[in-house]
Amino acid sequence: MATCGGPRVSRGTTRSTPGGYGGQYLMVIPKADLVVLCTSDWKQPEYPQHFALLAEFIVPSIGDFRQTAFMPGDLLARAREQAERSTPAVRAAALLRIARVESAADRDQARRTFNQGLGEIRRFTGLEREFLLDQACLLAAAVAPDLLSEIPPSVHTARHFLPDRLSNIMLAHGHNDEAYEYVIRYDQPATFPHAIVSPLMGRLEDEACRIAVLRSAIEAWRAVPEREFIQAFQAEWKVLPRDEALAVAREIVRVTLDEADQPITASYGDERPARITSLREHQLFQMLPVLRHLDAPLAESLIARHEQLAVAARRFPYGMESLLEEAKARTAAAGARSGGGGGYMMFGEPEDIPYLKALIQASRDGDFGPPIDYALGQYREDAAGDNANDAPREFWPSTCCLRSIFYQAGERLGLDATLYLDRIPDADPRLFAEIELAASLAGLPELQGSQRGRRRRNFR
After folding, report:
1. Angle formed by the axes of helices 88-102 and 107-122, to 10°?
2. What predicted TM-score, i.e. pTM, was given to this entire model?
3. Which of 69, 99, 125 is the last residue of a domain?
4. Burial class (CB in 10 A: 0-12, 13-18, 19+), 273
5. Residue-number span of the structural domain to which 22 is assigned
6. From CA 256, how far away is CA 245, in angstroms rounded?
7. pLDDT, tens digit (0-9, with 9 covering 90-100), for 183-209
8. What is the DSSP letter of 424?
9. Could you tell me if 48 and 174 are in contact, meaning their C-beta atoms sit under 8 angstroms apart?
10. Using one digit for the tens of pLDDT, what is the confidence trace for 99-152?
11. Last-in-domain residue among 69, 92, 127
12. Residue 22 falls within a domain, yes or no?
């Protein structure tokens, strides 16, 4: 760590190295004239851990800068004042999000703020109440997962995906124990969060707990055979006793062969890709590495009877294991040639692509004017007089865009991102953008919001 004077706050860019994260970034505390260089050899940047180390060992020796440096206190104080002047729906939604930022340093205060917002929402009626309670579910997973039992999801919630999202939010916000309890006690097999099994097991140090998670997934799959389970099992089966893993593997094969086949389009590998158009053979390919290790004769028998599986197995003898090894080797080679790099995945409707490209470019060069222009164009449609979006402003597409923009701006520019806030003409979306900027500065993960109401017709 090194110190020097400096008037601005920003995080530096990171540089990848083969085999690990290998990143570097700066944390700057203007009032202390302190610049801290942080490095990491792990696969993910460790913002919260570094914040905690500075708060405990460095900041106390130079003064009381905790609130300014680690909680963006000025931003939160201003956001709270604005929330108190807002309409009840905006105030309640803002308090839930303010609580998430507070949780980075003071979980007791965060809980009080969250309960204040939740109390206001419970006094609402109709769709406004339903929509905001759905949002409260997601934020409870971030702030205080034990409160989830007090917030039943509405009929408007995509119930099949909610458990995966809730448990993922818990993990992202450091609630590992709560995520573990949520998964092993989950009693609805049809919506069991199979997608979180492998990430959760990776966070648990106790082997008995890891086994308990996988066995919970196995029992849920036996009740309702969901395809997502196969991916989790093929990644984590080695924690089980060999005989138990073999029995489950053979059971998966039997169920896969008994079920009616369906057409799909699956492609494996970038160079000379193997293609499969059968759901059955795709699932058998996923199980191939498990069977190679546990029951080689069964693996060979399946390959002999399934033409597309045979072709894929020649290309990738150990299925997904071979595929991942090839991908790692290619990534390492590309990193060595280029000195590191990164990529992006874009999700959305075709008309969203210009906005997404502008946001990616802003994350690279620090100019967030173009994506803000897109979001403000969307805001004009959301607020268009008699044809205005009738959903609570928390859920306006323009609000969701602005939140994401200011989160990215906080990561790229630090507190300098506040200079862009004055470009937002409406106090309500500006409030939500400011809170998400504070979340970024506090080292929290981005938490996307749900879009509700009228979708734009012509977004330019």
Report:
1. 160
2. 0.77
3. 69
4. exposed
5. 1-69
6. 16
7. 999 999 999 999 999 999 999 999 999
8. -
9. yes
10. 999 999 899 999 999 999 999 999 999 888 999 999 999 999 999 999 998 887
11. 69
12. yes
